[in-house]
Amino acid sequence: MGCNCLFIEQTPFRLFMRALINYFSLIFTQRNLYKMLSRRKLLQQMVIMGTGIVLIPSCLSDKSKSSILLKNLTINSEEENMLAELCETIIPKNSTPGAKDLSAHLFVLKMVDDCQTKTDQEKFKKGMESFHAFAKSNTGKDFVKCD
Fold it and tell me: What is the pLDDT of residues 10-32, one digit of tens each?
């Protein structure tokens, strides 16, 4: 039935791919597909394929977006990571949790998005961009990659 070593973890996407491979291998090897599959097996594979089709968009999510939903502010994941590192620099982890552990950067983004005016949000965004440029010009690398 093919190589099952690729499907050690039975995730829905992998089950879907296994069913799809089995289905097409049967089509190409046997002309009378309806004689090879029982009705139960065919329905089972169709359900697995349908579930996989429904779940594929969640597997292909855009990694460049922010991890929280913001109404007015547009932040990509690189800027969010930089803000997380900046918050961690201000509130470092020691015997108490640090800013990353508390997701303080998400709190900052939510407060700026909900409570600040449009001009203040633009100033915040420009400040983040200028901080990024400052860190890159002084260290030669992104703030996230600095020690």
Answer: 666 677 777 777 776 666 565 55
CB burial of 73-104 (b: ≥16 within 10 Å; e: otherwise) equals: bebeeebbbbbbbbbbeeeeeeeeebbbeebb
pTM over 0.85: no
CB contact at 8 A, 50 and 112: no
Residue 19 burial by Cβ neighbours in a 10 Å radius (0-12, 13-18, 19+): buried
User: Taking 80 as the threshold, does the pLDDT of residue 64 lie above it?
Assistant: no
Helix spans in 12-117 (H): 12-29, 33-36, 39-59, 77-90, 99-102, 104-115
Residue with tokens 């203040």: 120
CB atoms < 10 A from the CB of 112, how many? 19
**Phi, psi for 76 (deg, rounded to 5):** -90, 175
